[in-house]
C-alpha cells in the first residue's frame, strides 16, 4: 500500500476518532454549561490529534487552530492542517449536528489528503473514497447557497438575489462544504476572512470529488503560508464556476468597499 494511500487513511481515521471523542464528551457533560463544553471540546480534540500525528507521522509538521504556530512548518515538505472542532458554537448547542473535525495533509505546495468528520451525523467524507458528484443538477431547481445561520452576510444576500438563489443557513465551514458535496447545496461562498484550517480538509475532499474550489477572484487557494489567514473562498459544482465568478465580480463592483461580510 502506497504512502499516499496511507495518508488518506490516517486523515480519515483520526478525524473519525476525534469526532467519536467529541460525541462522548457531549453525552458525558451535557449542555448546561455550553462555554465549558466548547472549551473542553477544542482542547480534547486538539490534544488527541496532535498526539496521534506525533506518533504516526513524527517527521511532519502540524498547523492547528488550537495549537501554537510552529514557524518550522514553513520549511517542512509535509504539514498536517487540522481544525479539531469546526463549528464550536454548534457543538455547544443541543441538537446541532452541523459541526465537524478537519484533518488535511499539505505536501510540497498542494493539499494531498483530507477528511471531514461530521460526528453528530455519523458521517465522514474523505479522500479515501470521495463522494460521488451527480453529473447534472435537477432541471429547474433553484441554486442553493450555504450561509451562516448566525451572521447572514449582506454580500451573499445580494449575490443570491442576483442569481435567484435560495440561502441555506448552516453552522461550520466543513458542514457547509460537505453540503455541497452531498447535493444539499450547490455553492459555498465566504467573503469575511477565515484561516487555513477552516477549509484545508474540506477543500481537499471537494477537489477529489470534482468540485471547483478557488478564491473569489478565481485565483488558486494556497496553504501553509506564513500568515494562515484566508480572506475568501468559493466551492461549487464545476459547471457553475464561470457564472458565479462573473456574478461575484458584478456584485462586488456595486459596492465600492467590495465583499466584506463573513459567511
Write up what this structure looks like:
By secondary structure, the chain is an alpha/beta fold. The protein folds into 2 domains: about 5-125, Fructose-1,6-Bisphosphatase, subunit A, domain 1 (Fructose-1,6-Bisphosphatase, Chain A, domain 1), CATH 3.30.540.10; about 145-255, D-Maltodextrin-Binding Protein, domain 2 (3-Layer(aba) Sandwich). The protein has 7 helices and 12 strands. It has helices at about 5-30, 35-55, 90, 155-165, 175-180, 195-210, 240-255; strands at about 60-65, 80-85, 100-105, 110-120, 125, 145-150, 165-170, 185-190, 195, 210-215, 230, 235. Strands 1-2-3-4-5 form a 5-stranded mixed β-sheet, sandwiched between helices. Strands 7-6-8-12-10 form a 5-stranded mixed β-sheet. The termini are far apart.
Provide tags for this entry.
single chain; 263 residues; alpha/beta; Fructose-1,6-Bisphosphatase, Chain A, domain 1; D-Maltodextrin-Binding Protein, domain 2; five-stranded mixed sheet; 38% helix; disordered C terminus; magnesium; 3'(2'),5'-bisphosphate nucleotidase activity
> What helical percentage do the residues reach?
25-40%
Please write the CATH class name of the largest domain. Answer: Alpha Beta
**E-strand count:** 12
How much is the radius of gyration in Å? 18 Å
Q: What is the overall shape?
A: globular
Secondary-structure content class: alpha/beta
Strand order of the largest sheet: 1-2-3-4-5
The CATH architecture of the largest domain can be given as 2-Layer Sandwich
**Biggest sheet record:** 5 strands, mixed
First-last Cα distance: 40 Å
